[in-house]
Amino acid sequence: MAQVTLTNVRKVYANGHEAVKSSSLSIKDGEFLVLVGPSGCGKSTTLRMVAGLEDISEGTISIGDRVVNDVAPKDRDIAMVFQNYALYPHMTVYKNMAFALSLRGLPKAEIQRRVGDAAKTLGIEELLDRKPRQLSGGQKQRVAVGRAIVREPQAFLFDEPLSNLDAKLRVTTRAELKALHQRLKTTTLYVTHDQEEAMTLGDRIVVMSKGLIQQADAPLTVYQRPANRFVAGFIGTPPMNFIDGSIRRDSGLAFIPASGGETLPVHASHAAALESKVGQPVVLGLRPQVFSLAADGDPGAQVAATVGIVEPLGDAIDVTFSALGQMRLVGRLPATTLPATGARVTLSLNTSRVHYFEPGEFGRNLCL
Hints:
Layout: E1 4-12, E2 18-27, E3 32-36, H1 43-51, E4 58-63, E5 66-67, E6 78-81, H2 93-103, H3 108-122, H4 137-149, E7 155-159, H5 167-184, E8 187-192, H6 195-201, E9 204-209, E10 212-217, H7 219-224, H8 229-234, E11 241-249, E12 253-257, E13 264-265, H9 268-274, E14 281-286, E15 291-293, E16 301-312, E17 316-323, E18 326-334, E19 344-349, E20 355-357
Parallel strand pairs: 3-8, 3-9, 6-7, 7-8
Antiparallel strand pairs: 1-2, 1-4, 4-5, 9-10, 11-12, 11-14, 12-13, 14-20, 15-19, 16-17, 16-19, 17-18
Helix pairs in contact: 2-3, 2-4, 3-4
């Protein structure tokens, strides 16, 4: 195992496109770190630079104590699992897993030991004589992971390995990968566009957009204390609601929606951070989970709303409604009551759990 360090790494292609903009990142020894972001954000390019599949334009990449900028991929002591598994169709599972070890000239007994141990760890011992065409998607994914495990590398690199699996199998395999990492403790860099996958797998997650690292932190910290508006909108299901407005001083501080509608009192925990923003534009961020159907004695602010779309999810419902001068806000409510489309309801809003951002796509969180 080893620490992986990127220092001011930049990638510019021949056509001038800057895919990664001077990024620095340290992946601790034994850590499971997830790069997450939308397509084109630079996460896969970053992974491929660590693997040596892409040259870097500037900066340094170290694996352990060794700078690997000019080291060939095969000599970096890493193992990579690809999105399409990349199994040899004419080889059995055993031979697929053993192939790289054979190329390195390891003794036959050592190859058998490593393949056997990996197969037992992954629960694929009965598949060793089969060929890839005889395997399900989940089994192919296990074989691809097994092929990486047998190399006993300093670091694992995963490039969206679950994206070809169906939804149910993704959840199962995700749990298996997490359990596997807890057993092996190998430094892991994992790329995905799925924020739920990132939240459940990573010791830390790194949110990227437009070639820049927007935030790197523990999953719950990223969710509860997003660094900027982009991170807040990307992490969380359903996505955060945003309302443009400004801060006004009445008896206390209040948020005034730009398009009209009810004002919201600023919670005491946010007052000091927003004191200097009186009269200035800000963006209010409301996670769907901060809403609830109002009941007598609720401590939160009361908001009048008109119900639009109701989506039952089992133990919860997603309700699209108009309120606060906005035609389309989303709240996730307990499924104890199913409001009717078009109904007028009163919602309670927990103002201690809202966020305030500077205007703009990457406006910083004002209350951190």
